[in-house]
Amino acid sequence: MVSTNYAPEHAGIGPYSTQTAEHLAASGADTHVLAGMPHYPAWRVREGYRGRWRMREVREGVVVHRRRHTVPARQTAVRRGLFEASFLAHGVLAPPPVRPDVVLTQMPTLAGGVLGARIARRAGVPHVVVVQDLMGAAAGQSGMRGGGRVAAVTGGVEGRVLRSATVVAVVHESFVDRVTAMGVPRERVRVVPNWTHVRPPAGDRTLTRARLGWPEDVAVVLHSGNMGLKQGLEVLVETARLADRDGGGVRVVLMGDGHQRERLRKAAVGVESLTFLPPAGDAEFPEVLAAADVLAVTQKASVVDMSLPSKLTSYFTAGRPVVASVAPGSGTALEVERSGAGVVVAPEDPEALLAAVRSLAADPGRCAELGGRGREYVERRLSRQAGLARVTDLLREALDAG
């Protein structure tokens, strides 16, 4: 497997790469991973890995080959390009010293896709790509400074990687048209949804709220995960500011890390209805989600068909209603609507977001109904067992195709 993100990263793509590799190893496969140094979502290399050039470690039966790369504290097209180039160069200079039977690549990153294709080609084996985010579209839609200028180049490289793959999997059907437009035959594209990688909450919701200092008479809307550009989290800062002006009763909580966190903190100075929390530990995470009244997913209006937030699977598992401040018709909007677990409001519109939160908070019965639908959707479509079985089937299909 080639995946820049891997355990001990606990947000974004890392958990899916990790659980896939550990599943394959537990099934008896000699499983190796080419990965970067753990850095996400803080965009800082994790303690214990700093200053290391190369590492080999064994985690749950998986041999992980780590290669050093740049980690930009701020995201611009140039800095992102250096991140990709450094991982690519180090992977080319020092690939894992194994001969695989099949290569599985998680994209992003673009460098990972190029490395996976190169390793597979040199070994003469099938290459399976799982598209978590579309990098060319991301460059154009995320709002990253200078991103528009590199979107065409990024999309061109991405297209070559996908066209050369034996099988291409996408995590949502909204990606299919864009992938086939790159020249990938439709018969080689599979829809393989991500699964929930957290356990259902099991603690006392009231006790968790008390520990967090969340009064029962205040509606808590929580956003968990990466604080990056494409999330457009300014809308939640402004939602909290509006709540202040309207007499309170709503608290916005931003839990997580990311390169936009400090900028958001500065923008929120003086906003009493906004709280920042550090990322929760794995054991605590489901309980914090379940303690909120509403779970928020936000994206810039320009984000349409390049990304599906992995947080949605955790939100559904938590059994709380979701408010999605995203573009109508986007993959995220379609997933929330299909699950029946929440409502979609206009992106970058704090008034619409606050109105939706207040409406849900005033109707506990509706909140319970929407939360229950989310859990049912997980059981029906997003279980870990089903997700891992789909990935295993992809690898079998690629091996049979030769």
Task: Write structural notes for this entry.
There is one protein chain. Helix content is 43%, strand content 15%. The two termini are 18 Å apart. A 6-stranded parallel sheet has the order 10-9-8-11-12-13, sandwiched between helices. It has 402 residues and is of the alpha/beta class. The chain is globular and about 65 Å long.
Question: How do the strands and helices of this protein lay out in sequence?
Answer:
Layout: H1 14-26, E1 32-35, E2 54-59, E3 62-67, H2 77-93, E4 103-107, H3 110-123, E5 127-131, H4 135-141, H5 147-164, E6 167-170, H6 176-181, E7 189-191, H7 205-212, E8 219-224, H8 234-245, E9 250-255, H9 261-267, E10 274-277, H10 285-291, E11 294-298, H11 311-318, E12 322-325, H12 331-339, E13 342-345, H13 350-361, H14 364-381, H15 384-401
Parallel strand pairs: 1-3, 4-5, 5-6, 6-7, 8-9, 8-11, 9-10, 11-12, 12-13
Antiparallel strand pairs: 2-3
Helix pairs in contact: 2-3, 3-5, 4-5, 7-10, 8-13, 10-11, 11-14
In brief:
The chain has 402 residues and is an alpha/beta fold. It is built from 15 helices and 13 strands.
Notable characteristics:
alpha/beta; four-stranded parallel beta sheet; 15 helices; 402 residues; six-stranded parallel beta sheet; 43% helix
Based on CA inertia axes, which overall geometry fits?
globular
Assign the structural class, choosing from mainly alpha, mainly beta, alpha/beta, alpha+beta, or little secondary structure: alpha/beta
Strand content: 15-25%
Biggest β-sheet: strands ordered side by side in the sheet: 10-9-8-11-12-13
Radius of gyration: 21 Å
Enumerate the spans where pLDDT stays under 50 for 5 or more consecutive residues. Answer: none
Please count the helical segments.
Answer: 15
Provide the succession of SSEs: HEEEHEHEHHEHEHEHEHEHEHEHEHHH
Helix content: 40-55%
Mean pLDDT, to the nearest integer, reads 92
